[in-house]
């Protein structure tokens, strides 16, 4: 039996998804041959494909839908290709059968069948751009529109995908009622469902302005609901009133936390697009009049008319005018300042909406709000003759920093963490701006950041380490002193971070400390310049004892920066490069080697050479090869032969290679170190490490160290791990 109820093979083999998938692939190849389409229609193959659309295997179901589209496109080639008749009376029988099946599925009360039909049509309009697709849409669009009358609307996600696929196809440029269907769909879908459709409409090239205005309003609605809710609650003076949306809309939106968070994150993720559109639109708004700023001036009030008292402009009406004015012209270069000034004119406040969201939201929304604020701030232009921030941005900072201070004190650790990340980023960009420095130092934010170094959550501690490191680099951090902080009264930030590196039980804060120390070394931080060698020695000593391989690897990165600075080549050629750097003069090299021995960099690097974690060993090998290449061409210090130092180093290397720890080597002589380096086949070791992709990372010793790093180093835990 070729086709039937038990499948084309007529046996138990049909129950295997791989068999059904293989049959579909074979049928796709068969459809290419002349005369095959009639065979497929007459022998029931298409009916079997219809049934496979609902297959339990998603792969088989998807392949069945794609095959239907492929057969439909093949059937419409030739004579029917130039006749896009909606009735389809002159369409081939195979195409008629497929389209009738799609029509029946769209009329079905089963959501699964509706979804299958919509997915087939989405693929069709996405891949087939012949004239007959216009007739197909004219024929099926009434059935698609009827879906909007059902409650709830079935397969809303698939419906959105279909409409956007049609709009992007050549059908979108024809007058076939598509834009009206899109407008109806926007008004019928819920905010959660309509968001992706609105965003897709705004990205269309040839779209009516009225439809773009409607789509813009859909994207703004979640933001307007939060503004409405915040305006009804006690808030700061001058907060915008009358935000768009009635109380029913606001209550519905805020009733579901997951939907509220999802929609706000979506709106904030696309804030850059909204900013560009709003920036253009608000530039045309005539503040306070409720009209757009055209060339014709509004008529002056009658002398006999009563003079209106001061009132706030209708915020929702202004947004409607803004939406209708968007996309009229390219965005100006100074759109950031335009938006700031226009917001102040419209709302009577310098606040931007995401500051208000930061007051009442947590988690993902707050993180997105901080990211949006940062994009806004960094987009604020500077006056051509001024190196400081513009007045509008300074005013904005004055209102932003109290909100940030509140977030750093939040009981929600995600809020504290997001606030610290934002502080780090904005300080990195504006740490040298006088206005920012003045506002930040007056806000108590640096003091709160220092307190979060002892936060109970490791993620927050790590972010606090990064933030304090960035603040200190710009001279914006002072170690808390006074009776409220007796435990750190006499300690510098370096000492406190070194304490975290040595004692913190979690890896994230320790990794953050190493990154901060490396950056301090690169930047010539004051705590580093005070005693460079002592700084490097203490950091390398702590990093060498860490069970986290990333901490040890970052220690090698710091060692490389120190070596480059000693050689007078900061940021020199990467050790991975094919051409090695030029050799240093012998006199300079001797001084460098002595300094490296004093900070015990050689012992740290040589131990790491046999690290059970491959990235650490690889980084150490590159560091030693870099140094070897600097010393070899010019001879460097004379070899020490079989001196006691050389013997002790070679013996230690053998023990480390065998996995033993052994005693520290202490301060070595440069000649002994170079003799050992010259005797080692570092090039061969690097080749071996490059080929070994996982044997060291997955070794029992590496796994044991990972477990110890996770559970701590208490004796009882250590015994359990062994």
Automatic annotation (TrEMBL):
GO terms under biological process: cell population proliferation; DNA damage response
Main location group: cytoplasm
Domain of life (superkingdom): Eukaryota
Keywords: Cytoplasm
Ranges annotated as biased composition (Pro residues): 298-308
Localization (cell): Cytoplasm
InterPro entries listed in its UniProt record: ARM-like, ARM-type_fold, BRAT1
GO cellular component assignments: cytoplasm; nucleus
Region (Disordered): 290-309
Family (UniProt): Belongs to the BRAT1 family.
PANTHER family: BRCA1-ASSOCIATED ATM ACTIVATOR 1
Protein name: BRCA1-associated ATM activator 1 isoform X6
Organism of origin: Camelus bactrianus
Lineage of producing organism: Eukaryota, Metazoa, Chordata, Craniata, Vertebrata
């Amino acid at each position: 039996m070729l086709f039937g109820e038990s499948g084309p093979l007529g046996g138990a083999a049909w129950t295997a998804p791989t068999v059904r998938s293989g049959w579909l692939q074979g049928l796709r190849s068969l459809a290419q041959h002349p005369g095959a389409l009639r065979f497929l229609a007459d022998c029931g193959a298409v009916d079997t494909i219809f049934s496979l659309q609902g297959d339990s295997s998603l792969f088989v179901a998807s392949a069945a839908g794609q095959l239907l589209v492929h057969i439909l496109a093949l059937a419409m080639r030739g004579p029917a290709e130039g006749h896009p008749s909606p009735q389809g009376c002159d369409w081939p029988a195979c195409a008629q059968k497929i389209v009738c099946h799609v029509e029946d599925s769209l009329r079905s009360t089963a959501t699964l069948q509706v979804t299958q039909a919509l997915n087939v049509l989405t693929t069709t309009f996405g891949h087939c751009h012949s004239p007959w697709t216009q007739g197909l849409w004219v024929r099926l669009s009434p059935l698609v529109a009827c879906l909007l009358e059902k409650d709830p609307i079935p397969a809303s996600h698939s419906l959105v995908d279909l409409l956007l696929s049609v709009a992007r196809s050549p059908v979108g440029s024809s007058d076939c009622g598509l834009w009206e269907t899109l407008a109806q769909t926007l008004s019928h879908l819920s905010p959660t469902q309509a968001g992706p459709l609105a965003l897709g409409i705004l990205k269309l090239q040839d779209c009516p302005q009225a439809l773009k205005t409607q789509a813009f309003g859909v994207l703004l609605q979640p933001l307007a609901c939060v503004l409405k809710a915040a305006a009804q609650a006690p808030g700061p003076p001058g907060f915008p009133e009358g935000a768009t949306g009635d109380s029913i809309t606001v209550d519905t939106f805020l009733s579901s936390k997951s939907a509220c968070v999802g929609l706000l994150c979506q709106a904030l993720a696309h804030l850059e697009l909204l900013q560009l559109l709003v920036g253009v639109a608000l530039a045309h708004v005539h503040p306070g009049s409720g009209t757009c700023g055209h060339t014709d001036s509004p008529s002056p009030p009658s002398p006999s008319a009563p003079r209106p008292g001061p009132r706030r402009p209708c915020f929702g009406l202004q947004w409607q005018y803004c939406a209708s004015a968007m996309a009229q012209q390219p965005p100006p270069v100074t759109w950031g300042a335009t938006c700031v000034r226009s917001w102040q004119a419209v709302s009577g406040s310098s606040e931007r909406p995401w500051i208000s969201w930061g007051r009442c939201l947590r988690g993902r929304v707050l993180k997105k709000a901080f990211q949006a604020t940062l994009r806004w701030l960094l987009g604020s232009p500077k006056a051509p003759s001024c190196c400081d921030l513009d007045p509008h941005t300074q005013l904005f900072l004055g209102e932003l920093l109290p909100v940030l201070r509140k977030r750093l004190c939040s009981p929600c650790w995600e809020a504290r963490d997001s606030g610290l990340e934002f502080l780090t980023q904005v300080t990195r960009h504006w740490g040298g701006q006088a206005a920012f420095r003045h506002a930040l130092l007056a806000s108590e934010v640096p003091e709160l950041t220092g307190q979060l170094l002892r936060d109970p959550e490791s993620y927050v501690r790590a972010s606090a380490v990064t933030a304090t490191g960035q603040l200190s680099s710009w001279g914006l951090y002072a170690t808390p002193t006074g009776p409220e902080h007796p435990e750190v009264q006499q300690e510098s930030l370096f000492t406190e971070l070194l304490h975290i590196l040595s004692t913190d039980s979690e890896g994230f804060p320790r990794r953050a400390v190493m990154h901060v120390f490396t950056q301090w070394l690169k930047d010539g931080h004051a705590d580093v310049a005070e005693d460079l060698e002592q700084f490097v020695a203490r950091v390398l000593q702590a990093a060498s004892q860490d069970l986290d391989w990333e901490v040890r690897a970052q220690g090698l990165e710091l060692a490389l920066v120190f070596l480059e600075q000693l050689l007078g080549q900061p940021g020199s050629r990467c050790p991975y490069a094919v051409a090695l750097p030029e050799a240093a003069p012998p006199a300079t090299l001797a001084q460098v080697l002595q300094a490296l021995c004093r900070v015990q960099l050689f012992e740290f690097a040589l131990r790491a050479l046999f690290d059970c974690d491959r990235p650490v060993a690889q980084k150490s090998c590159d560091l030693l090869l870099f140094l070897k290449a600097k010393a070899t061409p010019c001879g460097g210090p004379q070899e020490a032969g079989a001196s006691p130092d050389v013997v002790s180093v070679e013996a230690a290397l053998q023990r480390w290679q065998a996995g033993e720890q052994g005693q520290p080597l202490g301060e070595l002589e440069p000649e002994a170190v170079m003799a050992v380096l010259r005797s080692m086949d570092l090039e061969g070791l690097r080749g071996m490490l490059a080929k070994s992709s996982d044997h060291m990372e997955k070794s029992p010793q590496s796994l044991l160290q990972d477990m110890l790093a996770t559970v701590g180093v208490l004796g009882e835990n250590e015994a359990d791990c062994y």
